[in-house]
Amino acid sequence: MEVGIIGGKGDMGRWFGRFFENQGYSVHIADKDEGMSLEEMGKRCSVVLVSVPVSVTTEVIERIGPVMGKDALLMDITSLKVEPVDAMLRCAECDVIGTHPLFGPEVPSMDGYSFVLCPVRPGSGKWLAWLLRILKKNGARLVETSPEEHDRFMGIIQGLNHFNTMTFGLAMTALGTDIEALKPYMTPIFEEKIRIIKEVFSHNARMYSEILTRNPYLPVILESYEQTVKELKNLIDIRDAKTLEKQLQDAGNRFPEMFK
């Protein structure tokens, strides 16, 4: 069986290229003007994986979907699922499974990491069974859900989380913070925050920006975040430590035992 990877020169594209080769499949890549054309890939490959930036995923799906055989499988690994899955259903007659590997290209294997699956086309038993088999064999923790539920959860796990990181870093920039001057005073937690800010700002600014601006569920989440910030700032302004302490304790009691 032949597997095609669109975006095969990117970090995750290369990762999945190695992964499928290790499973014994022939892998072909398409990346901008390199590798196999999308037309040839769609006609030749039984499985095609779309691994491109969020902002161009739909455009790529619209090109590859119509040329794929009806008995093939089209997947994507985008961090958001509603938009790409809708595009795959609209543009391709083959089986469609939206996926989201919850790990980055720095990990040596998927063993122990979560892997989200959104099978959305009726009668997808053959390809879903195939994908489940190779993912389980390689130790992935499987999560099957709908594209909508995935994006709602990612609004918190990615959206709110990365928004907080961006706010933190941009506020430090606005304050003219000298990171070198802070070094002797840094706690381990603060050092980790600086490392994460550097990752978001320097290495993957496009990816994180697109994840936030394209998640349809994030604006409502950020309205709640904004209100919480206002309330917290007010307690600090009036120096009401007692009320703040109680709110923190009450919120802490609502977290599951695994976080205590």
Automatic annotation (TrEMBL):
One of its GO terms (molecular function) is prephenate dehydrogenase (NAD+) activity. SUPFAM superfamilies: 6-phosphogluconate dehydrogenase C-terminal domain-like, NAD(P)-binding Rossmann-fold domains. GO terms for biological process: tyrosine biosynthetic process. Residues 1-260 form the Prephenate/arogenate dehydrogenase domain. It comes from the Bacteria. Keywords: Oxidoreductase. It holds the Pfam family PDH_C. PANTHER family: PREPHENATE DEHYDROGENASE, PREPHENATE DEHYDROGENASE [NADP(+)]. This is Prephenate dehydrogenase. It comes from Syntrophus gentianae.
